[in-house]
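Workshop exercise sheet. Pairs work together: one partner reads the sequence aloud, the other fills in the structure field after running the prediction. Swap roles for the next sheet.
Pair: D.N. / O.F.
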Amino acid sequence: VVITIEGLDLSGNAISQNFTMYVTITDGSTATTEPSKDGSSSGGVTASKPVLVVAACSVSPETLESGGTAHVELTVKNVGRRTAQNIRVNVTSDDANIVPVGEYSAPYLAGLARTKEADFSFDMQVLPMALGGMHTMTIAIAYENSNSVAYTETAAFRITVNQPILFSHDKVDLPEKVTSGESFSLPVSAYNTGLTAIYNVKCSLEVPGLISASAYLGNLEPQKSADKTMSVFATTIDSTTKYGATYGACVFTYEDAAGEEYQESVDVKIEILEPVKLTDEEKKKAEEEAQEQKS
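Structure field:
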């Protein structure tokens, strides 16, 4: 059957559009079609069915400390054309250490008619070993139609878990003495012993008379470590005191997920020695020894 709708647009021009409807003519007997497992009919036209969606979701609080509990309230609405039956709603986390509170985690509702709504609530607890950061919580709605065909709808929301930053490093040891004009290597190691990621870990040496580029150790995931070796060059302490003992610090800086910077410093000391001045005869002898080694 073709239905034609005619009219005028805003400019006064004639417009029309055809709509096709399909009509099945039977002999009057009742025919049944066996539904498939996914809820669709084996016939040419998709049968009407219930459709449940999350119409509203609220979480309080949205940011949790370790051991804290979040209260989740959901409103589920049937936007389909048939009544939904045997409804169960479940909330799960991407972290096994964020769990529902209580023995039963999937509340049951016998039925929900079309256009109707139902409210569900959960309490989710953050266990001590939950990772810090943002987590995705998945809402799964399982239900059936009147023919016991199963359907599942999903939705998601997010919560943030705060875990303390636990940063540590190996002891920083400078050599007791170094001659001006010489270089030495300084290994540094950093550890994330906590349950939240640490970002932009750097180590810099702030000692008068020593020159070194900062060592960038990168981001540290929970329970991970990083190592770098710094190349340090000794010059003179300053224009008045060129040689002798010099004091400074080895400074570690890092950031949390919000970009807030933290700093830890280690006091260090080293003695810079004046280079040995060779006589002309000693220089000549050193050059000869160098040539012999090459040949």
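Discussion prompt: The first strand starts at residue 2 and ends at 8. What would you look at next?
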